[in-house]
Amino acid sequence: MSDAGLLPPPDADPTSDATTPGHRLLPHTADCIIEAWGPDRASCVSEALCGLVESFAEARDAAATRVLPLHGAPGGPEDALVSLLEDVIYALDVFAVVPLRFHLTETEGGGVAGDMEVVEAKDVDLVGPVPKAVSYHGLSMRPATGGWRCHVLVDV
């Protein structure tokens, strides 16, 4: 049986106006759902990335130790979102760093690019399972009233 009908739609939170950036995490069997919104695509993606980090780490009083580039693939909005989420998972896995802040803008080619301030993973509190991959199941990134909204399922 498909669980697609069990996932709340991306607009399920009536209290969240897309003109004010934000995100929320929703539980899902052995996974995590991130919903994010913002007045433009870059701020919506940035909120989704913050939600990803929030799902597994708390960086109380941590100071960034370096800055790493981020570049979302040009193409559809979902492609850029998945690409950037995978960059964060890759940095965690390969470099053992956790992002603290994201700085993103839209590129002329239709992608999203910027950087992330990171800290060594050993210097943060891990509060949940580390993400492993991004699923295309139920993925959406689209314009909404007042801005953009996204919905993504992350495998943990």
What is the number of domains? 1
Contiguous uncertain segments of 5+ residues = 1-12
- CATH homologous superfamily (4th level) name: Archease domain
> The CATH topology, please?
Archease, Possible Chaperone, Chain: A, domain 1
Structural class by helix and strand composition? alpha+beta
- Kindly state the mean pLDDT as a whole number? 88
* Inertia-based shape: globular
Q: How many beta strands in the DSSP annotation?
A: 9
What is the CATH first-level class name?
Alpha Beta
Offer a few descriptive terms:
42% strand; alpha+beta; Archease, Possible Chaperone, Chain: A, domain 1; three-stranded antiparallel beta sheet; 156 residues; globular; 2 helices
